[in-house]
Amino acid sequence: MKQILLACSSGMSTSLLVKKMEEEAEKRGVDVKIWAVAQDKAAKELENADALLIGPQMRFMKKKYAKTAEELGTSLDVIDSVAYGRVDGKAVLNHALKLIDG
Q: Has 72 been annotated as catalytic?
């Protein structure tokens, strides 16, 4: 099972995106766990994730998580602002899976 963590300022704005990503994963038969947390909780959750995607409004936090993510072998990136704004679960899921699978 692939584990995808989303982080945003409060964890609330990504909750709908998580739902859309889960729906897309289910349609495709992809075995994933997707969850969202507030950015101040992301560091504690990082060790449980294969990928951490940060909300575009929090892109400045990428540098903060980069070293820990690298040490843990966790992929890290910022969610595309267009996909985020459109709550495009398919695009964000594809992005996360590409990060994990290389």
A: no
CA dist 15 and 92 (Å) reads 13
For 89, counting Cβ atoms within 10 Å of its Cβ (0-12 exposed, 13-18 middle, 19+ buried), the class is buried
41/83 Cα distance (integer angstroms): 23
Which fold would CATH assign to domain 2-101? Answer: Rossmann fold (3.40.50)
Q: Which of 8, 17, 49, 52 is catalytic?
A: 8
Contact yes or no for 75/52 (Cβ under 8 A): yes
Name the pTM for this structure. 0.93
* pLDDT of 11 strictly over 70: no
